[in-house]
C-alpha cells in the first residue's frame, strides 16, 4: 500500500495534468493542503518534494510553490526532448529521417552555430510523430563537431537527444526559441498529411551545451491541430509550455 504522501503526490499530479492547477499558477499553501487532505504539513512537504524532484513544481524561499509543467505539457525551461515530452504523457514518440546531407554553412548557419561560413555542417529533415501520427517536421543543422555522431544514428531513432548522450555524453543545456505561424508548403503538407497552406506553428531554436557551445539550430514546424503553445505569466514566473492540442 502506498504511503500517504505518495497518494497525495499522485493526486496533485493528476490535478496539474487536468489543469486544475495550470502551468505558472501557485499551489495552495501547505496549511491549506494539509487541511484538505487531513494530514500534517510534514506529509504535504514530502509530497511536494517528490513533485519538485520531477520538475513539475518549483519554489522560491518564502513563496508558495509554482507549477512549472505538467505531464501533458512541457515548459521550455525544462528543455526536454520531443521523445521525453511524449513519454511523460504516456505517448510513443516516433521519428524518421527524410533527408540527411552535408552542406557548406551559410552566413545564417555560421552566426547561429558560431562557425566559419563554408564549414561543412549536417542538415537533417525529420518527421516526428505521436503514436505513429505525424505532428512535427524538424529541419535541423548540426555543428561540424557533432555532425559525425548524428550521421551515425539510425534513421528511425525515436530520441536523438538520448542517443547522443549515450554515445558522446552530450547534454543539451540551453535553448533559445522564436515562435511564429507559417503556412504549409507542398513538402510540409505531404509529410504531415495535411492540406497545402494549412497553418503550422513554427519554432526556430538554437540549442547549446552547458558551456554555451552551439550544438544545433532548427526550424521545427508543428501541426496546429496536434500541438499548441501556452504562456502563463505572473510576477514570479513566466513559463512557456508545449502541449497537445485539444
From TrEMBL:
Domain HTH gntR-type positions: 2-71
**Known InterPro entries for this protein?**
Bact_HTH_transcr_reg (IPR050679), Chorismate_lyase_/UTRA_dom_sf (IPR028978), Tscrpt_reg_HTH_GntR (IPR000524), UTRA (IPR011663), WH-like_DNA-bd_sf (IPR036388), WH_DNA-bd_sf (IPR036390)
State the Gene Ontology BP annotations: negative regulation of DNA-templated transcription
What is the top-level taxon of the source organism? Answer: Bacteria
Query: One Pfam family from the UniProt entry?
Result: UTRA
The Swiss-Prot or TrEMBL record annotates one GO molecular function as: DNA binding
Keywords on record: DNA-binding, Transcription, Transcription regulation
Q: Could you tell me which PANTHER family the record lists for this protein?
A: MANNOSYL-D-GLYCERATE TRANSPORT/METABOLISM SYSTEM REPRESSOR MNGR-RELATED, MANNOSYL-D-GLYCERATE TRANSPORT_METABOLISM SYSTEM REPRESSOR MNGR-RELATED
This chain belongs to the protein called: Putative Phosphonate metabolism transcriptional regulator PhnF
Amino acid at each position: 500500500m502506498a504511503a500517504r504522501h505518495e497518494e497525495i503526490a499522485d493526486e496533485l499530479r493528476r490535478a496539474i495534468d487536468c489543469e486544475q492547477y495550470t502551468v505558472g499558477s501557485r499551489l495552495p499553501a501547505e496549511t491549506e493542503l494539509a487541511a484538505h487532505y487531513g494530514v500534517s504539513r510534514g506529509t504535504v512537504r514530502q509530497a511536494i518534494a517528490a513533485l519538485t524532484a520531477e520538475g513539475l513544481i518549483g519554489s522560491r524561499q518564502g513563496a508558495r510553490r509554482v507549477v512549472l509543467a505538467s505531464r501533458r505539457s512541457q515548459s521550455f525551461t525544462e528543455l526536454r526532448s520531443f521523445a521525453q515530452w511524449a513519454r511523460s504523457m504516456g505517448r510513443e514518440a516516433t521519428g524518421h529521417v527524410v533527408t540527411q546531407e552535408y552542406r557548406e554553412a551559410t552566413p545564417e548557419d555560421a552566426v547561429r552555430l558560431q562557425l566559419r561560413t563554408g564549414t561543412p555542417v549536417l542538415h537533417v529533415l525529420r518527421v516526428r510523430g505521436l503514436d505513429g501520427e505525424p505532428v512535427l517536421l524538424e529541419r535541423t543543422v548540426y555543428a561540424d563537431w557533432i555532425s559525425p555522431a548524428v550521421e551515425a544514428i539510425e534513421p528511425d531513432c525515436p530520441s536523438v537527444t538520448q542517443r547522443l548522450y549515450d554515445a558522446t555524453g552530450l547534454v543539451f543545456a540551453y535553448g533559445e526559441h522564436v515562435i511564429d505561424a507559417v503556412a504549409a508548403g507542398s513538402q510540409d503538407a505531404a509529410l504531415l498529411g495535411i492540406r497545402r497552406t494549412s497553418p503550422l506553428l513554427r519554432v526556430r531554436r538554437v540549442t547549446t551545451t552547458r558551456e554555451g557551445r552551439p550544438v544545433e539550430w532548427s526550424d521545427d514546424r508543428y501541426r496546429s491541430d496536434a500541438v499548441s503553445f501556452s504562456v502563463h505569466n505572473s510576477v514570479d514566473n513566466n513559463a512557456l509550455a508545449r502541449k497537445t492540442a485539444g
